[in-house]
Fold Stress-response A/B barrel domain-containing protein.
Amino acid sequence: MSTFIISSSAITPMVSGVNGLASINLTLHLSFGQLLHSWSSSLTFTHILHSRYRSQEDLWEYVVHPKHVRVVNENKLIIDDVMAVDWMFNGASVSPKPGSAMRVTFLKLKGNLGEHEKARGLEVIGGIKDQFQAIEQLSLGENFSHEREKGFTIASIAVLPGQADLEALDSNSEGVNSHEEKVGDSIESVVIVDYLIPLPQVANL
């Protein structure tokens, strides 16, 4: 999972090029596009790349794949900043349907925390699905790629049917706040972004 700050009129070719990486047979799912919303006190991202792989080994192979390297080199000059977080998901890896909405949360924990506090944070995040029935899929875990994480070591993706369900989630502020309070003392910083999986493009005849 990577988030980007991009400021350039060349974004359209980049979107096409990055989404074309879905043709690499190492990927189970890949989608790149502009964020719907971004909330952060310190970082403001504009785009997101969400991709899934069968294993860490497939991810490493994807990173060095010639097609991926070419797209990175073609677009690196228009990218102002990048944050990347990768984690293992033990559930069934079902690709989000086109039109689905995603809420992605990145957590930076305070530096003096032990494994117990990390496990507690993951447990609390995992409990959100039980309270918000519209969440179709919840993936969460601890980052294993540390080069571009900016200190954000825990992440989650909640997949919902559509944008209206994101708005319903926001309207339940009491439920959201109750979960945040359970781990608030352990968190230094939070980044939350929303993204809509694009619908298939209809060809003009």
